[in-house]
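Hey, quick one: can you model this chain's 3D structure?
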Amino acid sequence: MTSPRPAPSAHAQSQQKTRLLACGASALLFVLACATPAMTVLNANKRDEEQMWGLPLLLMGWLGVFTFQFGWFANPLLALAFVLLLAGADRKALWVGGAACVLGLSSLTWYVNPIPADESGGDRYLELLYPSIGFLFWLGSLMVIPATAHHLSQPEAQASSSPEPEA
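Sure thing. Here's the predicted structure for all 167 residues.
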C-alpha cells in the first residue's frame, strides 16, 4: 500500500508559478519578435534599405551557418532551457539559457560580415545597419529563462523551499 503524497508547500507552488510565468513571458516575447521587423539591412546591390521581419529570419536563419552566422541556433537552446526550467532543473536552465543569450548576441557579427543577398555568389550583400524592435524582443525572450533560473537557484530561494521541521 502506498502512502499518499504530501501536498506541495506554498513556496513550491510559488516557484512553479514563477516558472510558468517566465515561460509565458518568454513565449510572448518570441511571438512578438516573429511578428515585427527584426533587422534593418542595406542591400548593397540595390543600395536600398530593407526591413527583415522576424518570422522569415526564423524560417531561413539556419542557413546562416554557411556564412558563419550562428545566432539562429540560440532558438533550439532556448527551447531546451524552456523545458529544463519547467522541469525544475534551474542550474541547467541557467547554463543553457545563458549559452542561448551569448549565441543570440553573436548575430551582431553581421555588422562586420555581410551576408549574401542571393545564391549568385556575386557582389550582392546585405549589410546590417541596425537591429530593430523584433531583435530586442528576441533577445528579451532569450534572457527571461536564465534570469528566472538564476533567481530560483539562489540559496535563499532553495532554503525557504525546504520543509520546515514539525513541532
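One thing worth noting: Helices lie at 10-34, 54-60, 74-86, 90-105, 133-152, 155-159.
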